[in-house]
TrEMBL record:
A GO molecular function held by the record: Wnt receptor activity
A Gene Ontology biological process term: canonical Wnt signaling pathway
Organism: Rhabdornis inornatus
Protein origin, superkingdom: Eukaryota
Name of the protein this chain belongs to: LRP1B protein
Stretches forming LDL-receptor class B repeats: 1-43
GO CC term (a single one): plasma membrane
Gene: Lrp1b_0
Amino acid sequence: KLFFTDYGNAAKVERCDMDGMNRTWIVDSKIEQPTALALDLINKYVYWLDIYLESVEVVDYQGRRRQTITKGRQIRHLCGLAVFENYLYTVNSDNLSILRINRYNGTDVQALARLDNAKEIRVYHKRPQAAARSHACEADPHGMPGGCSHICLLSSSYKARTCRCRTGFILGSDGRSCK
């Protein structure tokens, strides 16, 4: 799945399949300007910053169990969001510090370091990532991802895929080659 925020005409947090299909709004009320998003892949939670409402909130992947983690004027200066273990990490653009926030109750906010310039944050851990299971976009014997001549996008599950073409090409009738 792909998760993203939108604060155009109607602000929302959405998800869709990697090929853009099955687009679903998971948060579409009491939301104004969601600017950063982070996923808890283990527990299947979506966290986001809303700088207009000055809040950090969380829902599960279906948009249920919504909770406010923290609220206040300091949120309007936050950008970027990452989750790791018991904490959320973000950047305060006002004083360029990295903040750590307890993700279960919003307390225990600590400034960890100062940076010269940052707008995004990622957490990398020394423990290797879990091995990915085989999926529909793995290279075929000819080196083509999922048998697609240009682009392979996972669809509704890791077993399904959709082929797409680069700009200027059209998908052939076989659904795999681009012309």
